[in-house]
Write a structure and sequence with these properties.
The complex is a heterodimer of chains A (204) and B (274).
Chain A (H helix, E strand, L loop, with lengths): L1 E6 L2 H12 L13 E4 L2 E6 L4 H6 L4 E5 H7 L4 E5 L5 E8 L13 E4 L2 H10 L5 E4 L6 H4 L5 E6 L3 H5 L2 E10 L1 E5 L3 H4 L1 H16 L1
Parallel strand pairs in A: 1-3, 1-4, 7-8, 7-9
Antiparallel strand pairs in A: 2-3, 4-11, 5-11, 6-9, 6-10
Chain B lengths: L4 H21 L3 E2 L5 E3 L8 E5 L2 E5 L3 H8 L6 E10 L5 E10 L5 H18 L5 E7 H11 L3 H10 L2 H6 L4 H11 L2 E2 L5 H10 L4 E4 L12 E7 L7 E8 L2 E9 H19 L1
Parallel strand pairs in B: 1-5, 7-9
Antiparallel strand pairs in B: 2-4, 3-4, 5-6, 6-12, 7-10, 8-9, 10-11, 11-12
Helix pairs in contact in B: 1-3, 1-9, 3-8, 4-7
The chains are: A alpha/beta (204), B alpha+beta (274).
Chain lengths: 204, 274
Amino acid sequence: MINFVLPKGRLMNKAAMLLDKIGVQVKEPQDRELIVRGEGFSWIFSRVFDVPVFVENGIDMGISGSDVIDELSADVFVPLELPFGQCRLSVIVPAEKTIRIDQMTNYRIATKFPNITRHFFSNAGIDVNVIKLHGSMELAPKIGIADAIVDIVDSGNTIRANGLKEIHKITDVGARLIVNRVSQKTKFEEINDLVERLAGMMKS
Amino acid sequence: MYKDTISNSFKLGKVVKIVREIFYDLDYSEIFLPAMDKFTPELRGGLKTAFNNEFYVIKPDVTSHLLASIIKEEELKVFYVSEVLESSPKGSWQIGAEWIGGKRDLADKIIQQIRAVQSILNRLGICDFMIDIGSLKKWRELIERYGLDRDGVYEAIEKRSFSSMGSMNIPEPARRELMGLLQKRSKTCSDPMIDSIIRQVNDDCMMVDFGTLRHFDYYDDIVIEIYTRNHSKMIGGGGQYVYHGQECFGFALDLSVLAQLCCLNEEKKEAESK
């Protein structure tokens, strides 16, 4: 039995479709169920930011965004980059502003990713004030609590609609398969079989 | 201020008492390193701080701290109980041992230390543990033979990333060998030293695993990882390193994991007795 955690939200359907292609059917939750048992798998559905935490602390496998794994510095194996969830983590400012990264000293940066943000600006030698927010990032520059934001950009429509523009890509982001370090050893055959089937399917 | 530190101390103390007895029986001496030491590049981990215009490290990695503290070359067979910080004020408590220098050959030191781990876990009632043994040298040989990008390969190994290995711009035979080594998990291998260690330890708990290795910049070759299916975190790990040309070997066990496993055992026993 493999315990597998999936993120609720936009990654879940794509993850389920990918697993379906190798003959693994994700049993989706009915009503407010958080755990569903299926053939050979126990499916757990959690918030996006909790997936790496679950896997690091004992759930065998999961699918998570690389942004969340990096933000939490999760101590997990990352055997596969999956072909969905591609976007980027970028520095975003109000559209009317003309500014470069190296001119952002003392800027207030709102983000859901404070660790990645601090690391990025610190590496660039820029001292900024990072403000942790949990959502509605685009609001922060509008209401004046931040001068810029660091957030996920997909098509760019949302930031444009909110009068913002992307000035610098920090990193590419995508969905990843992650594995608990101990489970990789104790469930070696089952986990390897799944990883190999997924890798083979993605190659073909 | 952390709450309930006292009851947690009692749990850790129970484990430490048993492990100390075993180490003393095996002729290890206990060492007590200062909580804070002047920063030198040799000290790994720990929490860096400044005081009176000097840089310090609080609770660094014990092996590097011990090696930085040695002033004369002699055989050291020591153990420690210490909290270790890793760039944050939240640390983990470890109990570990180091065997530095002396006349015993390396394989013998490794075998003795694996047996010490077995004794500790058995005495604590943790019976279904496994000890995986791997070789960092195998990876280094492969990297050198094919002239591969060392950092890229190490990063891929540490994440066990098939995607990274698959997308590397390297010759196909090199990729096949890298992937093969990443998947290598068995009871024996073609390494005479590892095979000999496994034969002499002669216990089903031993397994060769080349694919779940870390700390390439830390250890020299042989590494061990200790775990059980009853806990999601590693019980501990260790490895071989070189100090002033002498082959050394050490290991550390996570005291919190040991204490949790002991509590699980007690709960199980209690449930059975009812």
